[in-house]
Amino acid sequence: MAPRMMYLDESGELGFNPSGSRHFVGALVCTSDANRLKNAVKRWSARLISNGWPKAQEIKATELYHSRPNRSIPANAPWKQNPNAVICELLQLIGSHSEEIRAVSVVKAKIVRPNLKKAPYGILYNYFTSWVIIPAALHHDDIHLIVDQRNKESHTLEHFDGYIETRIWSRPNPPTEFKIDHMFSHQSYGLRAVDFVAWAIFRYREHGDATFYSVLQPYLKQDIVWP
Predict the structure, then answer these.
(1) Are the C-beta atoms of 196 and 101 separated by less than 8 Å?
(2) Exposed, middle or buried: residue 13 (CB in 10 Å: 0-12, 13-18, 19+)?
(3) DSSP code of 116?
(4) What are the percentages of helix, strand and coil residues in the chain, rounded to 5?
(5) pLDDT tens readout for residues 84-102
(6) Beta bridge partners of 142
(7) Could you tell me which residues come within 8 angstroms of residue 113 by beta carbon, excluding any fewer than 6 positions away?
(8) Distance in angstroms (rounded) separating the CA atoms of residues 88 and 84
(9) Full set of structural domains in the chain with CATH
(10) pTM for this one?
(11) Helix (H) or strand (E) holding 7
């Protein structure tokens, strides 16, 4: 039997630089039929490329949203004047081709506890993303978690894999198999999908733009706003 695939990505950041984002969003897309999700995202991507998106450039949510002034994209590309529509189409596909979507949105201004405020970046990332990973992994036999390769852990404490594995195995009804891989998004259509999910939720939390969040909302099994 194929494993239950889980794809994790984030939008925003957890630093406390005044010029940084006000929110951090961790998002998780889960499916037991990875090929079904992959094929949906692949077909959508192929159609976008055939209609003017540069083939050598990965399709990322931020770049697609801001594609109108991009001179490398032909002015007559049918979606260029309304990229919102194709983004919403993809989010609908992701929702309907996934088993569940989970998200945690952190309001950074409310991180006041000294142990969290002073924690290294990676520690905060591990702590908050575990809120969506743990409940999605329990009560399943075989879990394969794919995490975006970008690694911001510079601390010497327990790193992401060890932290999540410890939390998983210490809970009742853990999976019989649990594997974590780190990949770049161009290597995984699942990571490409969750990039759009995290971006859509972040855009709602950070900018109050519900255009994309409203498409996802019916598919959100877990939508935490911390605290």
Answers:
(1) no
(2) middle
(3) H
(4) 45, 20, 35
(5) 999 999 999 999 999 999 9
(6) 177
(7) none
(8) 6
(9) 4-226 (3.30.420.10)
(10) 0.95
(11) strand 4-12
* C-alpha to C-alpha distance for 101 and 116, rounded to whole angstroms: 26
Q: What does DSSP assign to residue 186?
A: G
Six-digit token pair at 15? 């630093």
Tokens coding 189: 């259509």
Token pair 């210490």 is found at 170
* DSSP reduced 3-state for 104: strand
pLDDT tens digits, one per residue of 197-207: 999 999 999 99
- What does the pLDDT look like over 134-170, one tens digit per residue? 999 999 999 999 999 875 665 555 789 999 999 999 9
- Side chain identity at residue 67, one-letter code: S
Query: To 5 degrees, how large is the angle CA 191–CA 135–CA 218?
Result: 65
